[in-house]
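Practice problem: predict the structure.
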Amino acid sequence: MSWLPKSPKARRRLWVVAAVAPVLAVAVGLSLYAMRDNVTFFFSPSEATAETAPAGRVIRLGGLVETGSVVRGADGEVAFAVTDNAATTRIVYHGDLPDLFREGQGIVAQGSFQPDRSFRATQVLAKHDENYMPREVADRLKAKGEWRPEGGAPATGAPTT
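Answer:
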C-alpha cells in the first residue's frame, strides 16, 4: 500500500506542497539571516561582559544613574556611570540629555562598547515620570533583588496614573 493518495488531484497538491515548502523555508531563513544585524539586545552592567557584548556591537545598556557620577564637558560631552548595584559601567554621550535625566533614576543607553571597554552611547532614554522605569531595567533589577520602588509605587514597566 502506497502512502501517496490515490486521487490524481490530491497527488498533484502533495507535489506542489512538497516543492513549495523548501523554497519557503529557504526564504524565511535568508530573511532572518539578513535581519540579524538589526537586533539590539539589552544588558544590565553586570551582564555586559566582553563575551556577551563584544566591542562594536550595538546594544542597549540600562540601569540606575549613579549618584555623583555625572560629569559634563565643555564640548557637550557627558560622562556618567550606570549601575545595577552589582556592577557599574561608565557611559560617554555627546549631545543633549533628555530633560528628565538625573542621578538615581533609571535610564537605557543605546550604543556600543569601544575596544577599551568604555561605552559610547548614541542615544539615552530616560523615564517620563516618577513611577516609571524602563521594563528591561526593572525586570533585571528585580531579578537580582536589587531594585526597590520608591514610596511603595508598583514596580512595573508601565506608567501609573
